[in-house]
Structures are given as structure tokens and as C-alpha cells.
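Sync notes, pocket subgroup
Present: LS, DG
LS reminded everyone that the earlier model was apo-only. Rerun requested with glutathione included. Inputs:
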Amino acid sequence: MTTLCYAKLTCSIGIHVILEEIGKPYDLRVIDFSKKEQKSPEYLAMNPKGKVPALLRDDGSVLTEFAAIALWLSMTNPDAKLMPTDPEGMARTLEALDFAVGTLHMLSWRMYRRPDAYSSIPEAQEELKERGRDAVLAGLDVVDGQLAGKDFIVGDFTIADAALYYVECWAADVAGWPLPPNVQAHFERMKTRPSVQANRKHEGFA
Ligand SMILES: N[C@@H](CCC(=O)N[C@@H](CS)C(=O)NCC(=O)O)C(=O)O
């Protein structure tokens, strides 16, 4: 059965939401970061990147990287309609997904959350945290403009909304930052979806 390697409060939240949207049976393999399980020999043998998400597929192969996993799941489950099929809709979905994963997460949130990955100097780490927070908030302002008058980032719900959701969850639930109004409305809308509720239950956000 398809197995998602998942760790608490990580970007694997977004893939969990996508699997719930698809509604087919899957397993969650929880990787405990507090025990550094992502760097254990067993995990590295399966995913040498030592990161989540990783998707173990029915044929035994492993797929990594949020965008690749999300795209593969959407294309192999067309009935779930998680990705537009027209070129413009596809491009806009990837544009929004890459902004969430590549810019808001990897370039911005990571700097706020893991300043130690960039510097061992305490003063520099403080500055990195500030810059990371400012970059996430500036990016969410851009998304706020894109969401004006819309329920989802591109037409109906897509894999890009699942990516945006995990960033919203980090900003609002983890960091406690106020979200801009359209982003806040999107976050609330996401929380009404059974897929997101299943993840929030799993994460302990009742
Ligand atoms: N580029 C990867 C990033 C994955 C990533 O950074 N995952 C983090 C959790 S959000 C992780 O596994 N970190 C563990 C570590 O660095 O030890 C993707 O898009 O999936």
C-alpha cells in the first residue's frame, strides 16, 4: 500500500492532506524527528536525503520532493481533480505550489525556524530569524493579493492549496503570526475540509 513517510508539523502535512483528498487507503509511517529518525541508517537506506515527505509506492520505489509527490498523486488519481488539465491552470498551480514550497518554506520559513543551519553565531541567528519571519510575511502578502475574490489559489481546490495550507499552519498555529485577511479566510476554508480536519486531528489541533 502507498506509504507516506511523515513527521509531525513538517511539510509532509500537505501530502497527508492530498492523500486524504484522494480518499484511497494509504499508510502513514511516522518519522520521529526528536529521535533523529530521519537520519537513521534504516531511513537513509530508503531515502538518502534524510527528509520527509517521501512516498513509498506500490512498486517499491520511493518518490521524494513535495512538488514531485503532489504532482504524481494528482496525475495518477485524476478523479480527485487535484490539478487542472489545461496548460494555463497547470502552470498556475505549479507556480503557486512552487512559491509555497520553494520560497515561503525553503527560503523563508527555514531561515526563521532553523537559523542554526546557516550560522552558529547567536547574533547572526537572531537576524536570520527576523529576516526569515519578514520574508514569510511579505510572501503571504503576495498570496493575499492572489487570493482576492477567490476561494482557492487557482479555481477549485488543487495541490497548491495543500502546499499553502501547511505554510499557513506554520505561520498561524506554530509561530502565532496574524495572517493577512484573504490568507486567513483561505486557512479557515481549508479547515472546513475533511482532509484537513483529518490532518489536524492527527497533529493534535482539535
Ligand atoms: N525540498 C524538499 C524539502 C523537504 C524538507 O526540507 N523537509 C524537512 C521537513 S519540512 C525535513 O525533512 N527536515 C529534516 C532534516 O532536515 O533533518 C521537499 O520539497 O520535499
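DG: Residues 10-11, 38, 50-53, 65-66, 101 surround glutathione (CB under 6 Å).
LS: The chain has eight helices and four strands.
Action: DG to write up.
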